[in-house]
């Protein structure tokens, strides 16, 4: 997948990856959250969405989901960050890991898959995919999703390198 090499920014890469996953994997919408740099596990919405089915994720639903992405009572996104592994929920109406606020925000969405983006040994973002139908976890499909989402780590690393302060050659070897 060339997304990691070709995307001009992390936000563009999120749009590309969520679009590819929606088109090829039957997901109706997808978004991404950035993890706080302090390692607390807190998440902040990027506001970037790909919506393949506007009826499943209208603007009001997206705003409600974004507003509760860091809900302390919700264990789906927190577990994804803490474990660095994907969390797949086949039926959000009965899964106890969702807080009431998140369940309400999801509206007509029935399945969720949250996938971590790791860089330099820590989770730096989470991509969350949504489907209107109950979708049972599928190990083959999950591996494909994890691989596609992993491309975002390349974009983050490239952006970090571009904004890192330049170190001049020999700067660490000055003698007094």
Please summarize what this structure is.
40% of the residues lie in helices and 22% in strands. The mean pLDDT is 87.
Beta strands, count: 5
Roughly what fraction of the amino acids lie in strands?
15-25%
CATH class: Alpha Beta
| Alpha carbon gyration radius | 17 Å
CATH superfamily: GAF domain
What does this structure look like?
- The chain has one domain: GAF domain (Beta-Lactamase, 2-Layer Sandwich), CATH 3.30.450.
- It has a five-stranded antiparallel beta sheet, sandwiched between helices.
- The longest helix is centred in the C-terminal third of the chain and has 25 residues.
- The protein starts with a helix and ends in a 13-residue tail after the last helix.
- Helix content is 40%, strand content 22%.
- The model has no long low-confidence stretch (mean pLDDT 87).
What's the helix and strand layout?
Elements: H1 3-6, H2 10-25, E1 29-35, E2 43-51, H3 59-67, H4 75-83, E3 87-89, H5 100-106, E4 111-119, E5 122-131, H6 139-163
Antiparallel strand pairs: 1-2, 1-5, 3-4, 4-5
Q: Which features does this protein show?
A:
176 residues, alpha+beta, Beta-Lactamase, five-stranded antiparallel sheet, 6 helices, 40% helix
